[in-house]
Amino acid sequence: MLVTGGAGFLGSNLVRLLASRGDTVRVLDDLSIGRPEYLAGVPHSLSRASLADAVAVREAVEGADAVVHLAARAGIPDSVADPLGTLEANVSQTVGLLDAARLARVERFVFASSNAATGDHELPADENDLPHPVSPYGASKLAAEAYCQAYAGTYGMAACILRFSNAYGPYSAHKKSVVAAWLRAAIAGRPITIHGDGHQTRDFVFADDLAQAVCAALDAPRERIAGEVFQAGTGIETTIVELAAAVGEAVGRQLEVFHGPPREGDVRRNVSRVDKAAARLGYRASVPLAEGMAETARWFRTALADPVLAAVGPHERSGSE
Ligand SMILES: NC(=O)c1ccc[n+]([C@@H]2O[C@H](COP(=O)([O-])OP(=O)(O)OC[C@H]3O[C@@H](n4cnc5c(N)ncnc54)[C@H](O)[C@@H]3O)[C@@H](O)[C@H]2O)c1
Question: Which of 220, 266, 302, 311 is the most buried (most CB within 10 A)?
Answer without folding.
Answer: 220
